[in-house]
Write a structure and sequence with these properties.
alpha/beta; Rossmann fold; 6-stranded parallel sheet; binds alpha-L-arabinofuranose
Length: 324
């Protein structure tokens, strides 16, 4: 299907062609640039998108994995533009640096859908809609959970005049890292919670472990709480805490974000205290939006995913129902 402006012309053409070629011509070609496979969340997100595309006979998905590099994403977008896809969708690894390529897409009249992460560009006509979580709100939820539950979990034997938090940030410059920090800091401001160390673990389990080891080396038993911007980093940090000889979830309270199955398993074992949901299951929403665009409908500029907070007490019951 050659761009939605030529929808009518292509419909006429399809009528005059054999059934098989009509089916091929009628497909909406979507180029999707994924960040990589840095976390269980990302793998579930890819699966949601690719499996939903297979369920829709009218969609022809061209999928590209950028291995966490912005330059690869830009290359993929340029390749989609030169192939003349009908829609481009992507999850931007970082917020900035997208203007030139988005302008090229606009000049080629290819609508761009942002999934999961936002871009920081002056001209918001460079993209049609942004679907995904409210990352600032996720940070607030993690902070609020901590303020409401720290006393119950760890007050014994320790004055809570100051609650020392170490923070494992996501990928530097990415929307979730920036926003989750902002939301958390907003709600803990003026409270006993103090962030004593904060560093990126790049959203990966290996980096989460490595950075937590460094935090433990410099702060040791001074650490009351770990706030991790995703579950994978929290799971890596849990290993580091155990190797250091402390009990994750007891000696160090842990709150993280995503709500992947691994986090529920850790909560059932008492090693993680709370996970804030960030749903990767964006495939159905994405292709609904693509089909709406093809039908000439206007999309809301922002489509926010509904999400929950899961404290450890709910883990055993919820675990069997988790889809990712
Ligand atoms: O953009 C969503 C974030 O990216 C998820 O929280 C994280 O796990 C992923 O890698």
């Amino acid at each position: 299907m050659k761009r939605f402006t030529s929808l009518f012309a292509s419909a006429l053409l399809v009528c005059s062609m054999a059934v098989t070629s009509a089916q091929a011509a009628d497909k909406i070609v979507v180029g999707f640039s994924q960040i990589g496979a840095e976390s269980a969340w990302r793998v579930a997100n890819t699966d949601s998108i690719t499996s939903e595309a297979k369920n829709r006979p009218n969609i022809d998905l061209k999928f590209s994995d950028a291995q966490q590099k912005q330059e690869n994403q830009i290359k993929a977008l340029r390749s989609f533009i030169s192939q003349g896809v009908d829609v481009i969708a992507f999850s931007p690894v970082v917020e900035t640096g997208w203007e030139p390529v988005l302008k090229e897409a606009k000049r080629a009249h290819i609508p761009v859908i942002l999934t999961d992460r936002a871009v920081d560009v002056q001209d918001d006509t460079l993209w049609v809609t942004f679907m995904g979580s409210d990352f600032v709100e996720e940070g607030r939820r993690a902070g609020n959970w901590l303020l409401e539950n720290y006393g119950r979990l760890k007050a014994e034997g320790k004055s809570s005049d100051v609650i020392n938090v170490v923070e494992l940030q996501g990928t530097v410059g990415s929307a979730p890292a920036i926003d989750r920090k902002t939301g958390f800091e907003e709600v803990v401001k003026g409270s006993p919670v103090k962030i004593i160390k904060s560093q990126s673990g790049d959203f990966t389990r290996a980096k989460g472990k490595e950075v937590m080891e460094a935090f433990l080396k410099s702060e040791g038993k001074n650490i009351d709480v770990l706030y991790a911007h995703n579950d994978d980093m929290a799971l890596g940090a849990i290993q580091a805490i155990e190797e250091y000889g402390l009990k994750p979830g007891k000696d160090i309270i842990i709150v993280s974000i995503d709500a992947v199955r691994g986090a529920f398993e850790a909560m059932v074992e008492g090693k993680l205290n709370c996970t804030v949901e960030c749903s990767p299951l964006l495939g159905p929403q994405l292709f609904d939006a693509v089909e709406a665009l093809a039908a000439g409908k206007e999309l809301p500029k922002r489509i926010v995913t509904n999400e929950d907070v899961f404290p450890a007490e709910t883990a055993a019951e919820i675990l069997p129902t988790r889809k990712y």
